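Reminder: ligand-aware prediction takes two inputs, not one.
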Amino acid sequence: MEKKVYVKSYGCQMNVYDAQRMADVLAPEGWSQTASIEEADLVVLNTCHIREKAADKVYSELGRVRELKRERAAAGHETQVVVAGCVAQAEGGEILRRARDVDLVVGPQSYHRLPALLAEARRTPGVVDTDFPAETKFDALPAPSRDKTLARGVTAFLTVQEGCDKFCSFCVVPYTRGAEASRPAAAIVSEAERLASSGVRELTLLGQNVNAYHGAGPQGGDWGLARLLQRLAEVPGIERLRFTTSHPRDMDAELIAAHRDLPQLMPYLHLPVQSGSDAILDAMNRKHTRDDYFRLVDRIRRARPDIALSSDFIVGFPGESDADFADTMDLIAQVGFAASFSFKYSPRPGTPAADAERQLPESVKSERLAALQAALDRQAKAFNAATVGRTVDVLLEKPGRHPGQIAGKSPYLQAVHLDGDGAAVGDIVSVRITATGPNSLFGERADTPPHRATA
Ligand code: 5AD
Ligand code: SF4
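Here is what comes back for the chain with iron/sulfur cluster:
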């Protein structure tokens, strides 16, 4: 009988990608994916550990899964429960102590062993595999499946790099995802070719530190991210390229030049700064100053004047004074961000900042986060308002909310809704932006017929 797996992902885009890879590993064993947890014989919670609430969510979800497992057992169905992702990696056996119904705890380095681990867990529930094997998971994962039932749409993520050696003092990633490792260029190119031939038009290259990419080139030697992007731009059918997440220290001259020279590379860059205070940046072990960031932004904008920048911010880091926070607000005002993500600092066990003195009270964190988000919201709205009246290319991704409507993304990653007018998902159409809504832009076709990609 067909077995059904339900994967729920939390957190970053890397997890979204990993979820698909887990499904790919399980498919040859007779597992098909389901969107309904009630009918799942296997429930995988693909967890995130980066902030406190994410781990809390997992434990409350496990409570619900436990109920479900009981109900299904009463009806004669067995359900296996797997906790994967970074909480699995960080907490290991602790998860089994807090949630006894879990059958398997598996870290991101071991997904290629899922079928064997599930078989082991069926014999003796409560298996934990959070080892860092000698080979990287890139070597061990099968090629992604081309099963049409796993339709990926016209945009796709592609992991090129994993792990991080930066050790920012607040961050668990170097501990949960391990040391920085890059995938060989040839493997990435063939995955891109496969995705393009199944209809993908836009690739977002993923890595915790994606611009630190230094993979083996097809003819030996190391390729940096700029070289990789140039090669991927040659893949027939790939019309757009993006990458995330970048560290300011790794924005080299070639990558900045690629933003000037490579038409497929979209004018949007997620470049987290975390704080605008030199003292806090130092305590965070970010290895750059606010001035380094300003200079970098200048160079990037000289290469690509219309580039949209986004960032992550942490407020309430241990020892952050009013003056430090004012420096962050000042940096935001000087740079101008199109979009942003901001968080209250949350101490992550095992990271240096968690043991720092002068942890700030929750009330200060909340107050600062509200002020920061108000400023960032204003900037995002201003950025969107400035597109009204402009004509931009939109990659059409899915039908819109209303009949005849179609929705896609601008080069600046803004959601755009318009009347389809004969255009199809996968087309890139020229759209005049007419209005902004709370979460998206509205526009009308400025061209006929649409530019249809050839693959
Ligand atoms: N507390 C709050 N935010 C954090 N981030 C990472 N670790 C923490 C933490 N301990 C944020 C950073 C990072 C984003 C992915 O999550 O801003 O860039
Ligand atoms: Fe974490 Fe810093 Fe590495 Fe980003 S660069 S993954 S914040 S340690």
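Residues 391-445 form a domain with the OB fold (Dihydrolipoamide Acetyltransferase, E2P) fold (CATH 2.40.50.140). Confidence is low (pLDDT under 50) at residues 146-151. We will return to this case in the review session.
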